[in-house]
Structures are given as structure tokens and as C-alpha cells.
């Protein structure tokens, strides 16, 4: 039953990411675009950070893409170099300006125009990927695009994007992790996927008609192959554990998580503790599970997932007097608490805010 | 855990039949040590309303118990409405849900209480437990994000015991769980530690539903088609509860159906969203036609899992459908 699914960025739409913390976002301001695409682009080029806040509220991203397609040739070829542009050739600076603007405007409107945002990213990607070998800017741009596309929870679209990247980029750890995330996203609840036709979604994410268990094992293999890559090992570890838990392989998940505490990034560290608690709970090791949930709460006090898991475990072990206040506090807290669990399926979208900020800084 | 029955009987009007007199005159007074079981008895879809303690047989782990019985209509009810407030209900459906909540309050008695839990990816209690009255708080219901239905149902159940009030949880959802951390097994385990009945209303197409009783599991006799005349049906097919970390193979498609079965509740397929309020009303009315059976457990150890079997033994009745929770954790 899929009455009214979440649209693109169904998960990501409810989160913004600031300083590594996932927070609930305010509803998008429904402001109409007051400037033409060309004027908006010119304003952005002059002051990307200042104009970024005005990029939201655009209802027709496809029109923006068509405008940019029409403007691109003239924009890339013409005009003088900006005095502050440094040593970059003018055409290169303008390529960066244009593609960053497109990505930024796609991100600002992704929650209501998911598929159109995806098309805009791919339109801009053409001007990024044809620049070979990839520069640091190209790498940063693609990582930012990945964050956006992963937040869309569209494994088919993510795989398509990855498939046309330069092989040297695809071999890098974060891009390999993205491929593994795409494999796991193919097993996500249909409501989280982009699109409106359940049958089409099912076909696109699983063209071979593989069983869900087969897809989960495929995802597990993808993560396992990354465990020896230090840069992404902590995240691959907790994601592998998640797949193992989904498969019901609780002891294996617990073994996988043995090294999760080595992470220095709060995202995998928190999830590692949460998943460890779930594995322990399922294995009947309730007191250890409760300790793991409390350790997760140390990292993110009042986070929903470990609070609820702890309350359930306490209830199951007869400690109702401890469980009730936890639940009472949880449901009466007006301000939604930070919980990385909510953004699990959205992959690197948690990094979107920082990454697009860096890109804006880079094109100033 | 020791349990005591604190029920006593009083006399009522002589106009009632003797059986009805006994059944309706029981004053429900229980303690936290009492085992309480809500029991729905139907014949041809209609509630059977004049049963007394002598008409029931209750086995706790196979041992017959001495029970007291009263009509649930005599007990104050705490109703918790668990409402799917995910992004998928935004728009017209959200308005229908708000209207349904406001209507529900009208059907409560003065000594009942109501409570509303909004379930997106965040759980939010938008109406604290309170007697029926103002419904302004319902305006705070907003829709966004995913659905943590299992978590929301657990939050609805985990409450302090009040043995003198009965508890009904009515949940509405229009889709699958996307955000819960609790899996179905955890939710079942939590539910078995409380005596709340859980009913679930979810989209369903009656034309796609097979006729006949829902799976009876360990119960002796069970059925309970609900309100077919109103276009309501019991969903006999599974409703998927798809979870992130919590889903394991084999449990993905039966969560809600199984939860209602394990709590003595029912899952109702609903085709017409305009009928959400009427469905809540019907479930509430049906709940009030149930019986409360209570007893001080004897002859069985308190700890551990207790299988419950409830039968109606009045042979003159013919075939009846009995629905009750199939067990509990001591």
C-alpha cells in the first residue's frame, strides 16, 4: 500500500546537516523565484554564499535547466575574468560557477522537485565529467553531487551517476562506498525511494528480479570489500552490521561491530553503538544491550532510536518504572532530537551542507 | 507475581434476565495483581451481550481459573489514538484525520480519557491523556518525514498500569513502517506485558480480501468480522511492516496483523478515507460490547509466558466467535 509516498529526498528533505548534527529542517519557504535564471546566476557568481539562501522555493526546476542549457554556451565563452578569480582561466572559473550554481539550486529545491533536481545535477555533471583528468574541484563537485543523490534514495539513479564518472574517481574510497550504499538502498522500503509508481520502482531497483535476501547479501559483500580501506572502514563497518541485522545474522553483526568503537566520526560511532545494542538485545543479552543504548545516548542525548530501544528492553526485562519516564520524555519533547538513525538511508546527505558550503567557498 | 481478584457483585434491576443481571451488575474493581482479559464474543458478527462468569471457561497455561466477568461498557476506557503523521498523509488525508480525532472525542464518556500520538519519524504526543473536552490540540497535528509505527505503538503501550481502567489503542496508518528502530518481535514482546487491546486501521480493498475468519493462532475459537455492513472488513492478509535495521527475513509482511491478534484486537481495511472517523467510532463501540474477565491466578507459576484459552461454554448459544489475547508475560 503506497498511498502517497515520500518523494525524492524523502528522508533528506527532513534534515539539514550542520556541524555533523542532523536536525529537523523547517518547511521550505514557498517563495517564487523573483529573478530570472540568468539574473540569479549572475548574482550567484558574484556572491554564492549570500545568494544561496534565495535559491529555494523554485517550483519548476526543469525550466531552470532549460534556461541554463540555453545560457551555458554564452556564459562559458563570454565575459571577462573576475578580478578575484585568481589564476584560474576565465573559462574554467565560469565552468565552476555554472556547475556549482546548478548543483546548489538542485539541492535547494530537491525536497519538492526530486526528479527534476536529479536531471539538473546530471545536466551539470556533463560539464564536470568531461574535464579530464578530474581536478580537485571536479572531485569535490562529484562528492557533493553524490551526497545529494544518495539523499534521494534512488539506487538506480545513483548507480547511473556513478557509472559515467571517470574511472579514477570511481576507484576512490568514497565513491566505492557510494556504490555499496546504492546496493543497500535497493533493499530500502519502497516508501523511501524516489518516484510514484511502485511497480516501476521495483523494476528499476531490482531489474533481475533477485530476491530481497540476494540483494542484501550483495550489499553485504559490497561493504565487506571496503573493510580494509581505512578512510571508509568505520562507516562500511556499521553499514555491513545493519545489513547483517536485517538478514537476522545478529551474532555476525555483533562480531562486525567489535571494531566500531575505533571510529572518530560520531556518525558511525553512534550507529555502531545503536546497532550493537540491537544485536545484543536480539541475542538475549539485555543488560549489555541497555548499556550499548546508553552509550549511544551519551553521543546524542534524547535521540529517539536508542531511547525507544532502551525503553523496550527495560520493559521486556521488567523495569517498567525506568522505561515509562523515557517514553514520556520522548513523546513530550517538542523539539525533535538529533538522531543519525533517521538519515541512515540517505547516505552521505548528512554531509551535504558542509560539502556545498565548501564548493561555494571555492568558486568565490 | 501474586494476583488477587477484587471483584464483587451488586444487584440490579429485576427486569433483566438472570444472566444479564449477573453480567451487568459486576463492578469491575481490580488490583495490579489481577490478570485481566478483554474478550469479544460474537455470533454471526453481532455481539453476544448477556453472558456471565458461568458461561466462560478460561485456562491459564492449561489450568482452569475462577473468573469474574463484567461488561466492558461499565469500565472507564483510556483510548490512545496512534496516528500516522508521515509525509504521505499530508494534504487532504491530514484534514480527514483531524476531523476523525475531533469526532472520536464526542463518543467518549466523561470518565474516559483520550490521548493522541502523532507518528512520523518523530513521535509526538499532541494530546496528553485527559478526559474528553477541548480538541484544539488536534490542530497541532502535522505531517512530515517517515513512519515509525512500531516505535509509536510501543510508546502507546508503555504506560503505568491502572487496573481499574481498560486500555484501547487505535492506530491509523496509510503505509509501511520506514523509520522504527523496534522490530515486530520487540513490539510483540512489549505488547505481551500490557493488557491493552490494539486495533489497526489501514487502507485496504474489501474486494481483495478473502472472506472468513482471521488466523486464529493458538486461540480456541476466534473470528470477528467487523462491521461489514459499514464497508469495514478484517484484513486477513498481511500488512507489511518494513523496517530498516529491525526487519528480518520472514517477519516483514505480518507485523500489524500479528500485533492485533496478540492483543485481542483487530486490523481493519478501509477503502474510503472519509470513513476514518466512522471506523474509529465503530471500533470504540465494538470494544464497549466486550467482556472483562479477571481472576487471581491459581495453580500456575507467576513467572514466564502464560498461554490463555478462553471459551464460551453455554451450549445453547451454538457457534460463537471468541477473540481475546492469546497470552501474556507474567
If you compute it from the alpha carbons, what radius of gyration of chain A comes out, rounded to the nearest whole angstrom? 22 Å
Strand content of chain B: 25-35%
* Helix fraction of chain B by DSSP (H/I, runs of at least 4): 10-25%
Question: Widest sheet of chain B: strand order?
Answer: 10-9-8-11-12-14-13
SS summary, helix count of chain B: 6
Characterize the overall form of chain B.
globular
Strand portion of chain A? under 5%
- Give the CA-based shape of chain A: elongated
**How many helices of chain A?**
18
Profile the largest sheet of chain A.
2 strands, antiparallel
Question: Topology, pairings included?
Answer:
The complex is a heterodimer of chains A (364) and B (330).
Chain A: E1 15-18, E2 21-24, H1 37-46, H2 48-52, H3 61-77, H4 90-108, H5 114-129, H6 136-151, H7 155-163, H8 167-170, H9 173-185, H10 198-205, H11 212-224, H12 233-247, H13 250-256, H14 266-282, H15 286-299, H16 304-316, H17 320-332, H18 352-363
Antiparallel strand pairs in A: 1-2
Helix pairs in contact in A: 3-4, 3-5, 4-5, 4-6, 4-18, 5-6, 6-18, 7-9, 9-11, 11-12, 12-13, 12-14, 13-14, 14-15, 14-16, 15-16, 16-17
Chain B: E1 8-9, H1 18-25, E2 26-27, E3 35-43, E4 46-47, E5 56-60, E6 63-64, E7 68-71, E8 77-84, H2 92-106, E9 113-119, E10 123-130, H3 149-157, E11 166-172, H4 184-191, E12 197-203, E13 233-234, H5 255-263, E14 267-270, H6 276-288, E15 291-295, E16 305-312, E17 321-324, E18 327-329
Parallel strand pairs in B: 8-9, 8-11, 11-12, 12-14
Antiparallel strand pairs in B: 1-2, 3-4, 3-15, 3-17, 5-6, 5-16, 7-15, 9-10, 13-14, 16-18
